[in-house]
Amino acid sequence: MFAKDHDCSDELREVKLKSTPARLIALQHFEKLSKPTDSKDILKFLNSKLNIDRVTVFRILNSFVEKGLVRKIDFGEGKARYELNVADHHHLICQSCGSIEDISDCNIDALEREIKQNKHFLVNSHSLEFFGICPDCQPRLNRGQKKKN
Amino acid sequence: MFAKDHDCSDELREVKLKSTPARLIALQHFEKLSKPTDSKDILKFLNSKLNIDRVTVFRILNSFVEKGLVRKIDFGEGKARYELNVADHHHLICQSCGSIEDISDCNIDALEREIKQNKHFLVNSHSLEFFGICPDCQPRLNRGQKKKN
DNA sequence: GTGTATGCAAACCGTTTGCATAAGG
DNA sequence: CCTTATGCAAACGGTTTGCATACAC
Predict the structure, then answer these.
(1) What's residue A143's pLDDT?
(2) pTM for the whole thing?
């Protein structure tokens, strides 16, 4: 766990990225975020602290992904999401309210080993996401309501 | 002219879609395809048989997905892929040559049951894809070569 | 000082929408 | 007929690129 406003310049130096204000704030933001977010959210957050162009946000995100600081995820929304690249985990995505919950490592490792043995396919990474209805939305849907995301 | 192998008009009638030439050919194409493909490929194939606009291709694909004939998949490429909606299965995607291989049902069911019990989250669907290097590409990469997709 | 990061404008790509016309049942 | 499907043009949202300038090291 990191302190409230942890200076991320060490992390940036480690991956040979210059410590610019935008990058520092963006990385701090990721460290406080619990759920995968999109470029728009990052832009909004950065813009609340300094002036930044959305193009720069994409360049920052790409550099973070390239350096392995951040992981790029795709929920099939026509846009990418990003989250801090920590331990392997997956997501429960509510199709009603859009909430996202983490689930920690399932035994995909076993499956990957099996794939390697049977198919001789070298697995680098995998994506596993579950789409459905979260506990909060289930009663709401039964009453015929739908919460706008 | 059309419907050489299998006339798909029955399938279309079943889901209450009008049997137009483009839809028939598209559905036939899907039935012969073994791997998930994209809108461009469908457009190209359709255009080899008749004149069709890419907008119409998207509308056809969306109607197929909506009616459950076809499944929409996302490999994080910035575009959607589509495949015939058959038994639950997943994919091995080679990051070197782009080849796609199916793997049949892994025991995700158990995981889904667990999620339902522990998280009270109602799973409607899931996506599971593996990214890595296929057997063909492994020696090639060791020799420092890279096959263009 | 040198190379990288940023801003701005513009392009790009997949996809959707509006509207008029064509065609299926 | 009446409804739905298609074509065309245009819009759209996310993302990338080119180029000049500003900034980190």
Answers:
(1) 72
(2) 0.89
